[in-house]
Specification:
The protein is about 45% helix and about 0% strand. It has about 90 residues and is mostly helical. The N terminus is likely disordered.
């Protein structure tokens, strides 16, 4: 018999994390990180203070607010950096 543990193992289906090409680059990166770090949207929402429906809508049509992007990135251990453009 398999031993019970005190935590749930959560499986993330990659198909749920598909982000359309027209989505904002920040959104594509955030969802790429949630998949690689195996963070569920509901966990990202709870820890960032962003409603889960807002996160879902980022994939479809809504553009994220900068403060929300920063909050989501913080949860994922990332930060937004501004730098000078490189001359071509």
């Amino acid at each position: 018999m398999q031993e019970r543990s005190d935590y749930k193992i959560r499986h993330i289906r990659p198909s749920r994390h598909k982000v359309p090409e027209h989505a904002h680059p920040f959104v594509r990166r955030i969802f790429k990180e949630t998949l690689s770090q195996q963070v569920l949207l509901k966990d990202l929402a709870k820890r960032s203070g962003i409603h889960v429906s807002v996160l879902r809508e980022w994939k479809r049509r809504n553009k994220p607010k900068l403060l929300d992007v920063e909050a989501a990135l913080n949860v994922l251990g990332l930060e937004l950096v501004i730098r000078e453009r490189e001359e071509p």
